[in-house]
Design goal:
Largest sheet: 6 strands, mixed
CATH class of the largest domain: Alpha Beta
Number of helices: 13
Bound molecules: pyridoxal-5'-phosphate
Mean pLDDT: 96
Radius of gyration: 20 Å
């Protein structure tokens, strides 16, 4: 096929530690250096292909950016109707604070299975099916397991989800509703991941753990492509993102870099801010210490289970993304998360999941300490619907 007809302009896998390039050879694993693989693209080819704003004539969904996704052709795409998610400006709350800039919520709860895990898993499941895998698995704190289960069902593949036994039962029920096998075990998500790696070969599963395969990050890049379009080829000044495994932070950093390389985005990338809970803040601690890696956070505890991730193989990349974009990392307490959830619901009509509410709490901290000067354009992420989490009464 001629170069300009290729559905994907993916070129190679690059080891994120050594920068060595590798071909796409069933790459559902880490690089030989034990670091995540990242997909590289022909950005010069992209500049050519998108010169006439080709993507704008396609349906409004994450797949309109298909040249910058790894899925090799249209027929390989596994989709559940992913919409472009809205960017909703806050009204009363920033005004009451005297904030002169604008704050938006990027509301990714509108995606299939109600969370932004759909973006990554749509791409990873498409790739796994393309490579011929029949049985897919991952460790989860809830939303990833539900998304894997749904996309696997759609693709006609089997799914195994390994989850901590203290997860809200709604997440387990949701994965089971899609026909996935769910194993619960005592421990945290990294314990579930270790168990899965020890048993993956004997179970015959393809392991889609966060950043231990290169494609979930690729799907998650579409949050940045959407923002870039919603800001008319630009970007907000600051993006505040609830950070667990780090897929989103790494993906946005990579996406703006690719757009810049293709000449489609000028100016500094948005400053990326990682928000974590005080009960599980390995990235915040490493950022403050100036460290290049983060050590495991023992006894991790927070109601915001999506960011209850005591250790991630993406730590070095997350820290680089925060520093290279001039961002930072901030931890917030459980009470602040609760108050943020109530405030946004009552003053703005936006009921966010605890992780999303943590972004507003993080925003308040950054404003109080003067890191934000009060005139910025800021985007906060809501990654999931609050309806899957324990509702009032059981947890307050
Ligand atoms: C998974 C998850 C996160 C963390 O996302 P990463 O990109 O993996 O850091 C945040 N919020 C919610 C609701 C999640 O499900």
């Amino acid at each position: 096929m001629r170069e300009r007809e290729r559905y994907s302009l993916a070129r190679a896998l690059v080891c994120s530690a050594s920068e060595a390039a590798f071909p796409f050879d069933r790459p559902f694993r880490l690089s030989p250096e034990g670091a995540p693989f990242l997909v590289s693209y022909d950005t010069a080819g992209l500049a050519e292909r998108w010169r006439g704003r080709a993507w704008t004539r396609r349906p409004v969904s994450m797949w309109r950016y298909h040249e910058l996704l790894p899925v090799p052709d249209r027929e390989a795409v596994v989709s559940l109707g992913e919409c472009r998610t809205p960017l909703i400006p806050l009204g009363r709350l920033p005004r009451q604070l005297g904030f002169r800039g604008t704050v938006w919520i990027k509301d990714d709860s509108r995606l299939p299975t109600g969370s932004f895990k759909a973006r990554g898993l749509a791409v990873a499941v498409s790739m796994a099916r393309w490579f011929g895998y029949r049985r897919l698995a991952l460790p989860t704190n809830g939303n990833a397991g539900a998304a894997l289960a749904a996309y696997a069902a759609r693709a006609g593949l089997e799914a195994l989800v390994v989850a901590p036994s203290d997860l809200p039962p709604s997440f387990i029920a949701e994965a089971r509703a899609f026909g996935a096998e769910v194993r619960v075990m005592d421990g945290l998500i990294d314990d579930c991941g270790r168990w899965l790696r020890a048993h993956a070969a004997e179970l015959g599963v393809c392991d889609l753990s966060t950043l231990r395969e290169p494609y979930r990050v690729e799907g998650k890049k579409t949050i940045a492509f959407e923002l870039w379009e919603q800001f008319r080829g630009g970007a907000p000044d600051v993006i505040v993102y609830p950070t667990g495994g780090g897929t989103g932070i790494i993906a946005m950093w990579k996406a703006f870099d690719e757009l810049a390389a293709a000449g489609l985005f000028q100016g500094p990338p948005p400053r990326l801010v990682a928000v974590q809970a005080e009960g599980c803040a390995p990235i915040v601690r490493a950022f403050r210490e100036g460290a290049g890696r983060a050590s495991r956070w023992p006894e991790a505890a927070t109601r915001a289970v999506g960011i209850r991730v005591p250790a991630t193989v993406g730590d070095a990349l997350i820290l680089r993304a925060l520093r290279e974009t001039g961002g930072c990392a901030v931890a917030v307490g459980e009470e602040e998360i609760r108050e943020a959830q109530d405030a946004l619901a009552r003053a703005e009509g936006l009921w966010l999941c605890p992780e999303g509410a943590a972004c507003w709490a993080g925003f308040l901290r950054l404003r109080d300490c003067g890191w934000l000067d009060g005139g910025e354009r800021v985007v906060l992420f809501n990654g999931a619907t609050p309806l899957k989490y324990p509702l009032s009464g059981s947890d307050r």
